[in-house]
Inverse folding.
């Protein structure tokens, strides 16, 4: 049986020589720090949700923020997700930048009506006069042996909704920068935090979004390449596409595959809407083989979109159909079966094998 | 009827309406009545694809809309608040454009008109009002200066979970919100008694510690006064108020509806009560506030206005398809821009 | 500018010589008749929703059913979709077969929490002791110049949810049989009715689900091939995959393409979960080219899943990447722009052209 | 405290509890108290990954659960109703298995035990109770014979829209539902006064025309009697009842929670009030219903039971992974079966 997620210690964004401004932070710390700075930088930002205030959130992401920024800026709401998101709409109409939290992924469902029919459409409906600069933080995905509804992956749903943007960081550095980026946007962003990675530490360069060692050739101005994906590991034989907690798992798979001489590239998609189609084309254009990995169920998951984007751009050179290694089409199971459900190292390796061994006809 | 908890007696504008104001109210109601019936006719004539008439609700809508201070308040309508829009001085071509199927939400500027986009989700915007109102609290206006949000919804909408969440949030946060319910007896085909357990939406307010007013929704002055005191209560920082205006949907639910399937003309006649426009006219006559010449003039103005709106509506061409793409985001995405390009190329080559 | 949907008079399931038991019915009539028979056949079935009772539904699908079967079996609820679906769960637990209606597609969103977290999971959660034989009728898709939220396509969302089955008929015959089939199932089925097709008449053979002329080789027992897709038109050069209202449009496109000597096969997918992957493989295995058509926005739409399933099974023989002709990633527009949004004949023809003209490298 | 509207006085089982029953109630409460504190210890010892203690809510849970007629009623719990489960005689290994992370919802048979699967969505099952109850009405049982649904939820849950929809539906349909609220002062870190506008969930009932009872949730006899009258009211066809049992969550929200972040020990001591178990013990002693030997025996039984449950829990292996696939549908789909096959093959080859 493969390790559980929390056993993995690989940091996605490892840097050899910590530069000035680089700190070792957990994703929880990085997010907390980003929120603290966001509150300080923009007086129109407000943070709220269930237990966000005094408690600092069940994951402590908002820890200390109420004490520091006051009860007006950081507050607890009654226990009603539709209320939280509906209220965000009104605050945005009044000129605020709300940063609401839903406590767990599965509890975004009671708010879907407000998210899909209101938040995502108000700018369009109002012909641009009522922008919705809302950053909705959603602790997401599984891997922590939690109760029912505490390990859901809603990215396919969100990505399908016109008017939303969706992003998920895989490491503390990206978490810090992507949250600061999202919270300064003028459009609604669903910010999916991989809760199983909250406590893993990694280097965070607070001075620049694109640290020196990054393999990506985007510009280094604040925000620049933050709008796209990130090559987490370069490779020649096959591209693994992943996001959130699956990125570190894919990096581990890549290490194992390297032992067999297979050079795997890992693309951390980061933005799940809009998807960085160019980076997909570039990476798979080079490797000519791809596997998409996600925790959500297979059918109609975001993996289908990623696979189709790859097929569309790389059809002529693709050596095998894109494989999907995903959760099954079953409700997220209880802790005892979690490791059977979430794509594990073996299943990803089998996926790689299927692609490598594919023969036409 | 006021149920406890009670409104704070903070109405700083307690002067009764002047004759001038009463006449203005009538003029507005007459304009609304005429525009509303005309819109039904437009639909029959194929000028607009559909419309939701507010016939019978003129007093509730004009009376409440008239109480809004457009320098600081904000109104959150449903799809049936044409009378509120008119009372607040909206661009009525912009308003009607939603029924022309030009643009969902309407073509008026909601920020400038202080009237949120027309809302087709039943109870969809009730929470928005709470958020907007809480925003006023956060702004920290001087006491008695805060903007007030007024959200309109129906007896049917009151069944939605969002309304409960909104009332609870508003009460917990003491947000300056007026929940204005038009209880018009029907939610499409479902009568209030099969919809609103307990019989009254206002009665729910007490459970949240919110003061409520149940008013005769066909009496424009009563509605105006109730709304004005509710605004004063909110503005002074006392939290939300629920107003339930008892009225009647005299027309069909929409131009697609056939009320004959669920109520008889006899029932309609019995349940509808007094016509709010006619009632107000009689009152103004009796009280010597207006004479027949005034009413004739009001009617003439209403007809003139209708013609202008009809002409404006007829002039509205379809919006450029490119707006489908350009109005989704404030910060456009390359992926969507690519779709727009393909759309344009294919449209041109078709 | 191409015709609007309601101009199309082609019936998807045309039969030359009406056999005994064949009647010309609109889809509204076919659905109404199916519900009438379902109520008569199973005393545990109950129909409810907003305006379903006395009014007979805003689309008259439940017309006359309350008068005939009584107020206990067919009733109006208060105006609350979460209430309607949540109540369905309890009724199912008490041994009933609820057939709730949400009045329009867009008003399924307030009920998503109950659908995803309760209806779809109760059988699993209860380890099979509390089945959810719920048939949720959703008047779906656009094409009728309706107000906002009255023209939504939620199939990608529903298909992604483990525990749900999803079906959409394209013609009166299928509507009648698929509804009767769905309502006798022991699992929850989302039944998506293409509202723009309610008033089109077509032959309905009430004696058999698979009429003599059907090209499909399934068995003819009641329910048999109803579990799969349907070849609505045979062709050799390219497969158009569609469902709901898009099927008749694709049939019209096929006629036009035939004028240019292009022989298009039209596959009416019918089941959107589970998808008939075998039929996709069989059809595209033959034609070697495919275009998927749907009204929903492109990104993360069901078209991605269909395309990926095709690519997976037909990679070796596929002549071009599967094309998607879909709604755009924008909120469904107002009536005036509807024809710009819904895939029209020209756009589908352009999609076909792209596939036919595709050249590797 | 009974607020109007009032309960129908239809309690056909008005006899006061016998000494035997009072002792049984105590035995149950003692068992629940011991099992509950043990479960917290199990989590510390790594036997189970998490648990939501009901410490302090024994009277509310045992008193209400004891009133259920398991031949015809049905209970809809949340995640914190261990005491109700125990009072209803559930298989406690099956119950605890959800906290062992064996299976979401628990391994007991909900149909046989008349106790719906454990529900992790706050307010998620309140509407289910209404539907189930309406099903009883549709079954057309003889008057006074109908099954009653009892749904449990908290002060926090009361803020959810679903609770409002459920109360309104139940009242409109006169469904035999008891809404049993345990107001334990907290929703994780949020105190009732920042959660429940108006201060009481029971007070909301009047707005729907539903009778309500607010009871001392730490008094097991009071809770039992309130529940029994509510059931009698429902069973006689009078529609729903709301009961609000005022109690206190003495422990953390769950084993993952740290109450020190939002309340002091001193506040806890002041707000918690009397310990319901100790209070009942003193009452039984004073009234001569039980003696120290009885209490010692109750404790011994509780410890014996805890050991058996702990052993049962330890014996629970993980469920076969194949159940992930086989329990999704009643009628399996080929697509899902194919996934199960791949899963099995890959597991075997790994
Ligand atoms: C969430 C939602 N559900 C259903 C509908 C369909 N619908 C439109 S209006 C209406 C009745 C509304 O009744 P009420 O709130 O009393 O307002 P009225 O129409 O009487 O003004 C319904 C069911 C909708 N628009 N939104
Ligand atoms: C819909 C939903 N939102 C949020 C949560 C997370 N959560 C679990 S319990 C809880 C507090 C519940 O408080 P209350 O209803 O008073 O019940 P108690 O825990 O006090 O028994 C919260 C916020 C959840 N489980 N479901
Ligand atoms: Mg109404
Ligand atoms: Mg509580």
């Amino acid at each position: 049986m493969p390790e559980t997620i929390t056993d993995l210690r690989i940091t996605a964004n490892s840097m050899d020589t910590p530069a000035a401004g680089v700190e070792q932070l957990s994703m929880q710390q990085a997010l907390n720090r980003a929120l603290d700075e966001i509150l300080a930088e923009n007086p129109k930002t407000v943070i709220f949700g269930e237990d966000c205030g005094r408690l600092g959130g069940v994951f402590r992401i908002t820890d200390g923020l109420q004490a520091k920024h006051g009860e007006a800026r950081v507050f607890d709401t009654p226990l009603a997700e539709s209320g939280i998101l509906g209220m965000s709409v009104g605050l945005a109409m009044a000129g605020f930048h709300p940063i609401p939290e839903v406590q767990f992924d599965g509890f975004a469902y009671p708010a879907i009506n407000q998210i899909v029919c209101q938040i995502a459409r108000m700018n369009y409906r109002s012909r641009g006069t009522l922008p919705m600069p809302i950053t909705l933080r959603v602790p997401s995905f599984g891997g922590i042996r939690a109760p029912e509804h505490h390990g859901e992956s809603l990215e396919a749903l969100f990505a399908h909704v016109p008017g939303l943007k969706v992003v998920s960081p895989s490491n503390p550095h990206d978490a810090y920068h992507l949250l600061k980026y999202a919270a300064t946007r003028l459009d609604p962003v669903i910010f999916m935090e991989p809760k199983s990675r909250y406590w893993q530490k990694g280097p965070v360069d607070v001075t620049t979004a694109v640290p020196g060692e990054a393999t990506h050739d985007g510009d280094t101005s604040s925000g620049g390449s933050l709008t796209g994906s990130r090559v987490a590991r370069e490779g020649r034989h096959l591209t693994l596409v992943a996001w959130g907690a699956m990125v570190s798992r894919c990096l581990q798979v890549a290490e194992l595959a390297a032992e067999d001489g297979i050079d795997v590239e890992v693309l951390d998609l980061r933005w799940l809407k809009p998807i960085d189609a160019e980076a997909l084309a570039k990476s798979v254009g080079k490797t000519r083989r791809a596997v998409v990995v996600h925790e959500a169920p297979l059918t109609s998951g975001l993996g289908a979109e990623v696979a189709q984007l790859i097929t569309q751009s790389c059809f002529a050179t693709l050596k095998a159909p894109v494989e999907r290694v995903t959760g099954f089409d079953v409700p997220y199971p209880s802790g005892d079966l979690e490791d059977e459900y979430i794509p594990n190292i073996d299943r990803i390796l089998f996926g790689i094998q299927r692609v490598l061994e594919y023969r036409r006809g | 009827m006021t149920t406890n908890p009670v409104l704070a007696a903070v109405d700083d504008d307690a002067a009764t309406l002047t004759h001038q104001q009463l006449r203005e109210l009538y003029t507005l109601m007459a304009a609304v009545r005429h525009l509303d019936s005309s819109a039904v006719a437009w639909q029959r004539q194929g000028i607009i694809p559909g419309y939701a008439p507010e016939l019978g609700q003129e007093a509730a809508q004009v009376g409440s809309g008239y109480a809004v201070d457009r320098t600081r308040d904000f109104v959150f309508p449903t799809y049936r608040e044409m009378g509120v829009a008119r009372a607040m001085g909206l661009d009525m071509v912009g308003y009607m454009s939603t029924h022309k199927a030009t643009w969902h939400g309407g073509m008026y500027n909601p920020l400038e008109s202080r009237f949120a986009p027309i809302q087709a989700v039943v109870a969809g915007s009730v929470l928005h009002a709470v958020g907007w109102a809480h925003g006023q609290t956060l702004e920290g206006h001087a006491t008695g200066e805060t903007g007030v949000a007024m959200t309109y919804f129906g007896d049917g909408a009151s069944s939605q979970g969002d309304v409960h969440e909104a009332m609870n949030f508003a009460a917990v946060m003491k947000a300056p919100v007026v929940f204005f319910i038009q209880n018009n007896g029907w939610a499409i085909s479902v009568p209030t008694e099969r919809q609103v357990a307990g019989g009254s939406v206002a009665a729910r307010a007490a459970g949240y510690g919110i003061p409520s007013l149940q008013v005769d929704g066909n009496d424009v002055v009563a509605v105006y006064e109730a709304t004005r005191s509710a605004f004063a209560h909110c503005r002074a920082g006392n939290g939300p108020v629920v107003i339930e205006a008892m009225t009647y949907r005299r027309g069909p639910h929409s131009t697609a509806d056939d009320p004959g399937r669920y109520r008889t003309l006899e029932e309609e006649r019995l349940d509808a009560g007094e016509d709010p426009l006619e009632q107000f006219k009689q009152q103004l006559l009796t009280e010597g506030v207006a004479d027949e010449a005034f009413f004739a003039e009001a009617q003439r103005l209403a007809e003139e206005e209708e013609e202008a709106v009809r002409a404006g509506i007829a002039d509205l061409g379809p919006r450029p398809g490119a707006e489908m793409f350009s109005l989704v985001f404030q910060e456009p995405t390359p992926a969507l821009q690519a779709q727009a390009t393909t759309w344009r190329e294919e449209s041109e080559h078709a």
User: Anything to note?
Assistant: Chain B has 14 helices and eight strands. Residues 19-44 of chain B form the longest helix (26 residues). The radius of gyration of chain B is 21 Å.
